[in-house]
Write a structure and sequence with these properties.
The protein is an all-alpha fold. The protein has 22 helices and 2 strands. The chain has a domain of 106 residues.
């Protein structure tokens, strides 16, 4: 982001000249469409934004609304989400009183990212609808592109995968007009391809997004986040382990890279190291992970480790933490780790709560099939096979394992295929010795 340094210098020069208007313009121009860097508050930029706020009147104005919203977005990468939400609420209030569509659009665009935690999902869904309405009134194709990015991101989180076609049509038509929208278009396409089970296309879209990311400081982190879960399903995540360990060091504020590396350890057969990462997270109830836009996906990554290593005690903790998110998806906007209820079912199997496991699994299977989420469907079938084994339902275990094996073979989900095959092999051995 060459412009960042240039605009910080411009703000400094404006300060020296005593030109408050120029200072505010420099502060607002220093914006790439999102926070400066994933998992880290840009303190230099925040200092400029705070100083710019001193240059504007206390009354309602477009500049005040935009400064507050931009501060909220940048601050969301830290650990005080309540402060970000308070800034966002103030910004929206100012923008609505100003009564200007352009200002309100830019404010809503920022605050839908700044307030991205589970508790705010419904209000963010309403905000993304309003973004589209405003962009259509303005007739601005670039703003339509930004609205489309926000809508897909939010609907992924809500597991509304079947309601994003309009947004993708908009991005297809207009994403070339803005580099941020263009980059996000391909990242979001990668996630959608992963959801539907086209793992090859998911990797191809992720590669395109990486190329388009260019000099963006978090492009490597976005690429790793997008492709790691695809490779997990492909059974090749261990090949990325050195890269993931480096990204974890380079982006210490993205605490979700720790359990992500733990999943890569599983792929490499280093289960004990993965188990250690899980226990560290569970022992302090994930207190090392701030409630910010990456919190929910981070918890889901711990759940993946837990399911794989079969830690019943950790499963009970994770089940309680994740239960309020039932019906949603485990999405970081640039990666997907299936449906929440899908993981609840698998955690219940690990816990040995077979009644709850069956109920959750059937709920997750119906949701995944309705949404065309074939990766989740295949994972749930494996969970049902494991449930049936634990429940002593031999015929059902074979049926579900065969279905999981067949779908995994078709989609190239090697890990699930191997696990389903192992279950079938165990059933066969038991039958032959009966």
């Amino acid at each position: 982001m060459v412009f960042r340094g240039t605009l910080l210098a411009a703000a400094s020069l404006a300060e020296q000249l005593g030109d408050g208007d120029a200072y505010v313009r420099a502060a607002l121009a220093n914006h790439r469409g999102g926070a400066s860097r994933a998992g880290e508050v840009d303190q230099e930029r925040m200092a400029v934004l705070r100083r710019a706020l001193e240059y504007v009147d206390d009354g309602d104005s477009p500049e005040r609304a935009l400064l507050l919203a931009t501060m909220a977005q940048e601050d969301s990468q830290g650990s005080d989400i309540e402060r970000s939400i308070a800034l966002a609420d103030e910004a929206v209030g100012v923008a609505r009183r100003v009564g200007d569509d352009v200002t309100l659009f830019q404010v809503l665009l920022r605050i839908t990212e700044a307030t991205r935690i589970p508790a705010t999902l419904e209000r963010r869904l309403a905000a993304t609808k309003e973004l589209f309405d405003i962009a259509e009134r303005l007739g601005d194709p670039v703003q339509l592109g930004f609205a489309a990015v926000r809508e897909v991101r939010t609907k992924y989180e809500a597991a509304q995968f079947d309601e994003v076609d309009r947004a993708f049509r908009v991005m297809e038509a207009f994403s070339h007009l803005d580099p941020f929208v263009h980059h996000n278009h391909h990242s979001l396409r990668a996630v959608r391809a992963h959801i539907t089970g086209d793992l090859t296309a998911a990797m191809e879209y992720a590669e395109l997004a990486r190329e388009l990311g260019g000099s963006e400081p978090d492009a490597p982190a976005v690429y790793v986040a997008t492709t790691s879960m695809v490779r997990w399903d492909m059974g090749t995540l261990d090949e990325m382990l050195p890269v993931m360990e480096r990204i974890r060091r380079d982006f210490p504020g993205v605490t979700g890279f720790r359990p992500s590396v733990g999943i890569a350890y599983l792929s490499a057969g280093r289960d004990e190291e993965a188990r250690e990462i899980l226990r560290e997270g569970v022992d302090n109830r994930f207190g090392d992970h701030p409630l910010n836009p990456l919190w929910a996906i981070t918890i889901s990554l711990y759940a993946t480790i837990c399911i794989e290593v079969g830690d019943a005690e950790s499963a009970a903790v994770l089940y309680d933490v994740m239960s309020p998110l039932r019906g949603r998806a485990n999405s970081s906007v640039v990666s997907m780790n299936g449906l929440v209820t899908e993981q609840l079912a698998a955690l219940a199997v690990v816990m040995g709560d077979l009644g709850r496991a069956q109920t959750d699994a059937m709920e997750a299977l119906a949701q995944a099939q309705r949404l065309g989420a074939r990766v989740s469907t295949t994972r749930v079938l494996l969970t049902l096979a494991r449930w049936a084994v634990a429940a002593g339902e031999a015929e059902m275990a074979v049926q579900y394992a065969q279905e999981a094996q067949a779908q995994a073979s078709e989609l190239g989900m090697r890990r699930v295929h191997a696990q389903a095959s192992a279950l079938l092999g165990a059933r066969g051995r038991e039958g032959s010795t009966a």
